[in-house]
């Protein structure tokens, strides 16, 4: 019997089809599973027919209803698969459109990745011709235009071929002189070839592109003699094609809403998520929206399937993100109770508190940042210390807690990485600070309070000290890892005993928005040789991405392993849309007025209120004013902190910190002023500690970057009065 496969675009369009058409698809698909190829051809209802004058002689159409047709790619006729091979349902469209589409599509097998690819031959030819016309020499009496350097002049035809760029594409590519032309042409090229060209244009060498694209994608087994390369390509392209193996699978698949990330992983995502076994901790990094969370979810699935009976901890940074992970886990595990039961989803802090509660039979009372700072302020004043409250808070958190320093002697000799203000070893200054720390310990212990970070430290001590009592997991998967403090890492290390597939870590150092600079190796987590990077953004348009990435230009970002710097080189999106709306206003009232108009425009364009988020650095006063103005305009709003479920209507209101990990079709970032980004009271003065000052500024820069990169289709950035210095260079470019 023949097999059936569906392309990603066919799936994506299926949801929009009317019920009778969907029923027609089901009926047609049933026949593909029940009949032999000759029977399929003979079936009157199905009307499987070859398309005349098609660019690809294997193109067929099938009848779905009176007016709708399926566009189908038939197996290669001259191979044994011609009789039992895979039919690919490419799209379901009205009759005339189906024939027009079937005529111009050409499927091929990429010579390097061996993946299936498709192109509209006519469009590429037309684009090439239009470029050639521009190049035609001018009349003899006109001055010839300057010869522009070619975009890919440095890449030989042989190398292009080695990377799978074929003749038709190469002919077009050789005419390109600018990146913008590649962005216009690219989406018409076969996907793997476009990806190769994008990376080359971003400055990656031929060998680097070969490693990144070809090696990751090429199937490990070569095409066997007699096997059809088309057939092999169909099964080797899971990021764009889904092969259906049973009638139940088809029915279930078509009935469920399409969740592209569940089915069509990019090769680089699949390779790491479904890697059979890692010998130790793995780190996956990538810019915003590159699918790190998606990969983490698929890894959980893989671990549950590979290790029956094993238990997995899936952690993230905030409760809101943990809720969303739990929800998505249900989807990726198809609601399978047995596997769901073996996964615990929690924030690290919540786990740590549970750990302490288990041992001490009482919950610690947790100190918020503001209350913690008040304690330090009092101690500073009482002891008449020459340092600021902030200096003391940071010294305790980033040196003492980070390195588990428990005695004056240890503090006197400790390195203080990331701290610029010099404190000599064995000095009276360190002794003075230690006095304050002892006082802090005594005060907080007396009333039984601790910060979340201290709770993680205590929980790690319990876990290491009482292994019998501590909860342990066979595997720990960590999302949003960039902000974890060393104490949190130690706790995670304690709950995940060392071994194969012990820790799977995803994060992005460009989104570090808390004051935690951790080196994984310093907390005993060695990822050398097991570090992977994702580069394609699936969330935002290239326009939003380019603008947002500009906020970080020139800012050195240290990587998670602690061994060097991270970069967004090669980070890109395949989506395109309108550029961000970036506007300064004379007054806050004018900014809020413009916001309400913007939200109404987005709603008029068909967005639900829950698809829209409004964000500012702080809740007060802007978000409250925005909520009131929206209410006056009859638009409901709801705070993200109140954890509204996905079905609750209302524009989402969030502080920039609360936007971490979330995404919306449209995002308005308000109050991007010189006073808010950076927020001076939160920045250590340069003359107090230059290193900490730079790190505080960077943290605020990343915060604005995080807020802007939550937008999928539309981003509006606004301020009143002087704008943030982080965006001034971007305004000059506009
Ligand atoms: N292979 C895929 N196919 C389709 N959509 C995808 C794919 N991978 C990720 N996405 C979508 O891209 C968006 C971003 O994914 P995800 O949240 O996993 O990225 P992330 O790297 O964790 O982002 P961030 O670091 O900004 O929080 C989500 O809407 C997700 O569903």
From TrEMBL:
It catalyses: Couples ATP hydrolysis with the unwinding of duplex DNA by translocating in the 3'-5' direction; ATP + H2O = ADP + phosphate + H(+). It holds the Pfam family UvrD_C. Keywords: ATP-binding, Helicase, Hydrolase, Isomerase, Nucleotide-binding. Its EC number is 5.6.2.4. SUPFAM superfamilies: P-loop containing nucleoside triphosphate hydrolases. It comes from the Bacteria. The keyword Cell division does not apply. Gene3D superfamilies: 1.10.10.160, P-loop containing nucleotide triphosphate hydrolases (3.40.50.300). InterPro entries: DExx_box_DNA_helicase_dom_sf (IPR013986), DNA_helicase_UvrD-like_C (IPR014017), DNA_helicase_UvrD/REP (IPR000212), P-loop_NTPase (IPR027417), UvrD-like_ATP-bd (IPR014016). Residues 265-541 form the UvrD-like helicase ATP-binding domain. Belongs to the helicase family. UvrD subfamily. This is DNA 3'-5' helicase.
């Amino acid at each position: 019997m023949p097999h059936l496969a569906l392309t990603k675009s066919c799936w994506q369009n299926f949801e929009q089809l009317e019920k009778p058409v969907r029923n027609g698809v089901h009926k047609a698909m049933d026949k593909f599973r029940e009949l032999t190829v000759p029977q399929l051809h003979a079936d009157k209802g199905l009307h499987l027919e070859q398309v005349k004058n098609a660019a690809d002689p294997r193109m067929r159409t099938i009848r779905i209803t009176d007016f709708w047709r399926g566009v189908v790619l038939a197996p290669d006729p001259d191979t044994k698969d011609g009789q039992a091979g895979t039919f690919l349902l490419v799209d379901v469209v009205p009759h005339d459109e189906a024939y027009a589409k079937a005529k111009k599509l050409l499927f091929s097998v990429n010579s390097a990745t061996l993946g299936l690819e498709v192109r509209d031959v006519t469009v590429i030819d037309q684009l090439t011709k239009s470029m050639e016309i521009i190049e035609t020499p001018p009349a003899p009496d006109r001055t010839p235009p300057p010869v522009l350097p070619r975009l890919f002049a440095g890449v030989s035809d042989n190398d292009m071929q080695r990377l799978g760029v074929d003749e038709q594409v190469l002919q077009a590519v050789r005419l390109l002189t600018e990146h913008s032309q590649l962005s216009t042409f690219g989406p018409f090229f076969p996907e793997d070839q476009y990806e190769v060209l994008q990376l080359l244009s971003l400055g990656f060498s031929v060998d680097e592109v070969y490693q990144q694209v070809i090696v990751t994608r090429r199937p490990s087994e070569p095409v066997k003699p007699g096997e059809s390369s088309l057939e092999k390509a169909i099964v080797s392209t899971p990021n764009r094609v889904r092969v259906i193996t049973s009638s139940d699978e088809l029915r279930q698949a078509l009935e469920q809403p399409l969740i592209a990330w569940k089915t069509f992983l990019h090769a680089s995502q699949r390779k790491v998520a479904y890697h059979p076994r890692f010998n130790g901790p793995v780190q996956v990094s990538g810019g915003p929206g590159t699918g790190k969370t998606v990969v983490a979810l698929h890894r959980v699935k893989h671990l549950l399937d590979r290790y029956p009976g094993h238990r997995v901890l899936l952690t993230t940074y905030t409760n809101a993100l943990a809720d969303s992970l739990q929800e998505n886990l249900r989807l990726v595990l198809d609601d399978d109770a047995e596997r769901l039961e073996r996964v615990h989803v929690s924030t690290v802090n919540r786990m740590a508190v549970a750990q302490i509660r288990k041992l001490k039979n009482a919950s610690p009372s947790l100190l918020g940042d503001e209350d913690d700072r008040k304690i330090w302020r009092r101690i500073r004043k009482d002891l008449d210390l020459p340092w600021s409250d902030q200096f003391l808070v940071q010294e305790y958190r980033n040196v003492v807690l980070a390195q588990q320093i428990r005695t004056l002697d240890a503090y006197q000799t400790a390195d203080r990485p990331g701290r610029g203000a010099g404190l000599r070893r064995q000095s009276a200054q360190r002794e003075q600070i230690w006095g304050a720390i002892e006082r802090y310990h005594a005060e907080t212990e007396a009333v039984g309070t601790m910060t979340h970070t201290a709770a993680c430290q205590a929980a790690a001590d319990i876990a290491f000290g009482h292994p019998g009592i501590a909860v342990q997991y066979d595997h720990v998967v960590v999302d949003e890892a960039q902000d974890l403090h060393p104490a949190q890492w130690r706790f995670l290390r304690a709950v995940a005993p060392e071994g194969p597939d012990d820790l799977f870590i995803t994060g992005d150092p460009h989104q570090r928005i808390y004051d935690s600079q951790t080196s994984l190796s310093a907390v005993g987590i060695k990822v050398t040789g097991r570090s992977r990077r994702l580069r394609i953004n699936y969330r935002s348009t290239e326009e939003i991405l380019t603008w947002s990435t500009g906020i970080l230009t020139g800012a050195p970002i240290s990587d998670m392993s602690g061994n060097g710097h991270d970069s967004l080189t090669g980070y890109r999106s395949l989506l395109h849309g309108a550029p961000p709306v970036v506007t300064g206003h004379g007054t806050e009232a004018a900014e809020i007025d413009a916001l309400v108009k913007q939200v109404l425009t987005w709603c008029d364009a068909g967005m639900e209120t829950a698809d829209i988020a409004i964000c500012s650095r702080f809740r007060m006063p802007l978000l409250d004013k925005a909520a009131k103005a929206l209410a006056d305009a009859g638009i409901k709003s709801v705070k993200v902190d109140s954890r509204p479920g996905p079905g609750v209507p209302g524009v989402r209101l969030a502080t920039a910190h609360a936007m971490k990990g979330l995404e919306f079709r449209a995002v308005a970032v308000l109050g991007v002023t010189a006073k808010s980004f950076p927020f001076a009271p939160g920045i250590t003065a340069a003359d107090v500690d230059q290193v900490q000052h730079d790190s505080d500024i960077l943290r605020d820069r990343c915060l604005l970057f995080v807020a802007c990169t939550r937008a999928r289709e539309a981003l509006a950035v606004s301020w009143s009065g002087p704008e943030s210095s982080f965006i001034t260079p971007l305004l000059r470019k506009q």
